[in-house]
């Protein structure tokens, strides 16, 4: 039996301002897909990302274009070939997982052959800004065990990082440069990360221009983000990266994310699970990848002014698995 599809665009205000090396925003624009057969309904949420040429309207249209295929019985397996990896497929893939769980009465982790999920510690993001601004934001989050520090400015990142470390002397730090560094300042910024005791550096160089990572000593583990999307990306990362940041909006859903995690581990990469700024509906499927991840960054709802009803429960930085009322 085929499924009916409803697509909606939602805008969720961010608490304050979220800034990275490519710019800042004050709201999270998400696209939600709902699939139903008259007795059960499943949902999936995605975040279109301009970095990959996606727009909110284009992603919504891409999902809506699958209406007739879904009505004819398109399933999750066929979806992987019917749509390319990206935000649109993520919303539908996660909605299909949720629908299967609601229809069968079995949770998604059981359908996927995974163990029961448990709470995990997530990173909390410190947005890019002036050193004093970042120090102030860090001071307010200094009791959190894991902080993710946005860097990647044209200059001054060592001072920013030093200010953050002074404000949170005991927190574990991850640095995310969002492709903002260059081969010329790489050594200086790596040295600053070493001095600050940083655990992991995400995407220091632009995707497609990261060959220098194979030639420089990496005193801190380096994680691919923009350089990895799905399993087809893995081969070119060997020798340049030590870890991969899996995001469902890049992989095109939970199905490919699970496969990517397995393949990455087999190749010796550490796994990180990341997110865009979005509601708990987008975080819920990623919690299943978080169970096997070395690093978890699922703080999207914490950055919003408010989350959706039945959202994930956060005890400080400890995030609990989703309830069936939310997803899965």
Write a brief caption for the model.
The protein is of the alpha/beta class and 328 residues long.
Helices and strands in order:
Blueprint: E1 4-20, E2 23-36, E3 41-46, H1 56-64, H2 67-71, H3 76-82, H4 87-104, H5 108-111, E4 120-121, E5 124-126, H6 131-140, E6 146-150, H7 157-167, E7 172-176, H8 186-195, E8 200-202, E9 221-224, E10 243-246, H9 248-251, H10 254-266, E11 270-273, H11 280-290, E12 295-296, E13 314-315, E14 318-319
Parallel strand pairs: 5-6, 6-7, 7-8, 8-9, 9-10, 10-11, 11-12
Antiparallel strand pairs: 1-2, 2-3, 4-14, 13-14
Helix pairs in contact: 1-4, 6-7, 7-8, 10-11
Folded structure, characterized:
The protein is an alpha/beta fold. It has two domains: 4-105, 2-Layer Sandwich (Enolase-like, domain 1); 120-319, TIM Barrel. The chain contains eleven helices and 14 strands. Strands 5-6-7-8-9-10-11-12 form an eight-stranded parallel beta sheet. It has a three-stranded antiparallel beta sheet with strand order 1-2-3. Strands 4-14-13 form a three-stranded antiparallel beta sheet, with no helix packed on it. Strand 2 (23-36) and strand 3 form a beta hairpin. Helix 10 packs parallel to helix 11 (280-290). The mean pLDDT is 96.
